[in-house]
C-alpha cells in the first residue's frame, strides 16, 4: 500500500516536472511575392500594322516568312532590295504574280486584291528594312 502510494506520488511529481510547452518560435513567413505580371505577348514593334493584318489574312505566309526564305524570298530580303519608290511596282506584282526577280519560282497572282491593300502590304514589308 505504501509502495503504491509512493508510486502514485512519484507519478505526481514527475508530472510536475514535465516541461511547460514553449510557444513555437515565430518563424518568418516568406514575404508575399508581388503578383506576377504576365510577360507581354511576343510581338514585334510592327504588330498591329494594317499591312501585317492583310498579309496574315491572305495566303502570303504560305510562301513567305519574315526572316527566312521559304518558297518566296523573306520579307526582310525584299525590304533590303527595294525602297518606297518601288511600292507601286511591288503592289502590282503581288496582284499579277510573276517571277524572275528572285528565281524561277513564280508568285501566284492575287487578282482579288485591291491595289490599296497590296500597297499596305508592301508598306509593311518595306518597314522590315534593317536600319
Ligand atoms: C505561291 C507562293 C507565294 C504566295 C502565296 C505569295 N508569294 Fe510573294 N513571292 C513568291 C515568290 C516565288 C516570289 C519571287 C518572285 C520573283 O522571283 O520575282 C515572291 C515575291 C514577292 C515579293 C517581291 C517581288 C519582287 O518583284 O521582288 C513581294 C513583295 C511578295 N512576294 C509579297 C507577297 C504578298 C504580300 C503575298 C500575299 C498577298 C505573297 N507574296 C504571296 C511566292 C509567293
UniProtKB/TrEMBL annotation:
Q: Which domain of life is it from?
A: Bacteria
Alphabetic keyword roster: Electron transport, Heme, Iron, Metal-binding, Transport
Which species is this record about?
Answer: Chryseobacterium rhizosphaerae
Query: What InterPro entries does the record point to?
Result: Cyt_c-like_dom (IPR009056), Cyt_c-like_dom_sf (IPR036909), Cyt_c_ID (IPR002324)
What residue spans carry the Pro residues bias annotation? 31-41
Instruction: List the SUPFAM superfamilies.
Output: Cytochrome c
Write down the Pfam families for this protein, in alphabetical order: Cytochrom_C
- Where are the annotated segments for Disordered? 19-50
**Ranges for domain Cytochrome c:** 46-129
Q: Which protein, by its recorded name, is this?
A: Cytochrome C
